[in-house]
Amino acid sequence: MEYLKHAILSIFILTSLSLPAFAQQSLSDAFNASYESENAGNLETAIEVLDSVYDAESYELNLRLGWLHYQKGDMDESIVYYKRSVDLKPYAIEPKLGLAYPYSSMAMWDEIIELYDKILETDPQNSLVNYRLGLIYYNRGQYERADGYIEKTVNLYPFDYDSLLLFAWNKLMMQRTREAKVLFEKVLLANPGDESAMNGLSLIQ
Question: Of 10, 146, 152, 163, which one has the fewest beta carbons inside 10 Å?
Answer without folding.
Answer: 10
